[in-house]
Specification:
The longest helix is centred in the last third of the chain and has 23 residues. The chain contains 15 helices and five strands. It is of the alpha/beta class and 328 residues long.
Length: 328
């Protein structure tokens, strides 16, 4: 009765009631960190709106043709819109194409549903174009926007949506849920619950795609070698790194998670660590670096992320990071 989701019961209950009483809003905004379950919740809402044989009011059957098509994101009345890659730009032409699609009557379902993922990546023209649709929504259309933070969106966009803020789950709840609902072995469930910082979507990605854990280990091994590398070796690594922007973002996210653990350990905080399989490495660094040095490294990585988001010269940005990484 929770739409097959782990956590976010309050959000499911609210949306189920909207569908059951046909009081659904014309636009929703799901706020929360990537991997917390924003897209999954949006797809379940689309199923509940369009299932022809609900098992209960607001409860999709999950097995009919419509539900299966929505699950695969291939339903003719479902539109998924996002930038081409994480950190990219959602463009006005994409919004205009969507608006044409939404102007048509539903093909086979009760509602056309448009899910606009990572809407903080929309450029100003795209956001302004969507605003017109939010102000005068077509009938039989429901829009769902997702974003990490409402502060990164135009206030006029936010004000025209029903906002649901999704938060990470307690680590023990996610750990147990991974074991009981998806059969994840206990040791792996504990590790990925911590690595995901309570985000069930990201935890399931780590479980279902072994390559993600392999890449993470490779990036952490690379970082350990860089701490002992010369400037020439670091710059050579930077040159290779900037060739793949998506991989670069992934590496920096893993490094930042690791250094936050080092900072927690160095400060004596009781907050659980994320990288449980690297505890000895973390402790080793805290024995050689003072807290101020660790804090500078965390700040440097956060600044690097911010600069890359603003499309500052990536090679120069990464080379500056390589100069600032501590030596060990």
């Amino acid at each position: 009765m929770n739409w097959g989701m782990l956590g976010h019961e309050w959000a499911v209950q609210m949306l189920r009631q909207h569908v059951a009483h046909q009081t659904q809003r014309h636009a929703y905004l799901f706020i929360g960190p990537q991997g917390v379950g924003r897209r999954t919740l949006a797809l379940h809402l689309a199923q509940a709106l369009n299932c022809p044989q609900p098992t209960a009011p607001g409860e999709a059957c999950g097995g009919c043709k419509s539900c299966k098509q929505i699950e695969r994101m291939s339903h003719p009345d479902l539109a998924i819109l996002q930038a081409e890659q994480v950190g990219g730009t959602l463009k006005v032409d994409q919004i205009r194409a969507l608006q044409h699609n939404l102007s048509l009557s539903p093909y086979s379902a009760a509602y056309r549903v448009a899910i606009l993922l990572r809407f903080e990546e929309a450029n100003p023209n795209a956001a302004n174009a969507l605003l017109k649709t939010l102000e005068e929504p077509p009938s039989r259309v429901v829009l769902v926007l997702t974003a990490e933070s409402s502060e990164r969106l135009m206030p006029t966009i936010v004000s025209r949506c029903e906002v649901l803020r999704l938060r990470p789950l307690p680590l023990d709840v996610l750990d147990q849920g991974l074991q009981t609902l998806w059969g994840v072995p206990p040791q792996k469930a504990t590790l990925i619950a911590h690595l995901s910082n309570g985000r069930p979507g990201y935890a399931l990605s780590l479980h279902n795609d072994p390559d993600l854990l392999v890449k993470r280990s490779t990036w952490l091994d690379d970082q350990r070698q860089l701490l002992n590398a010369s400037i020439v070796e670091r710059f050579a690594y930077a040159e290779d790194m900037v060739k793949d922007r998506e991989s670069m973002r992934g590496a920096f996210a893993v490094w930042l998670s690791f250094w936050r653990d080092v900072m927690l350990c160095a400060s004596g905080a009781s907050t659980p660590l994320s990288n449980l399989d690297r505890v000895e490495e973390i402790k080793n660094l805290t024995s050689h670096l003072d807290l101020a040095s660790v804090q500078r490294t965390v700040s440097t990585l956060e600044r690097t992320f911010d600069l890359l988001e603003r499309n500052v010269n990536p090679r120069l940005t990464v080379e500056v990071l390589m100069l600032d990484l501590p030596r060990h």
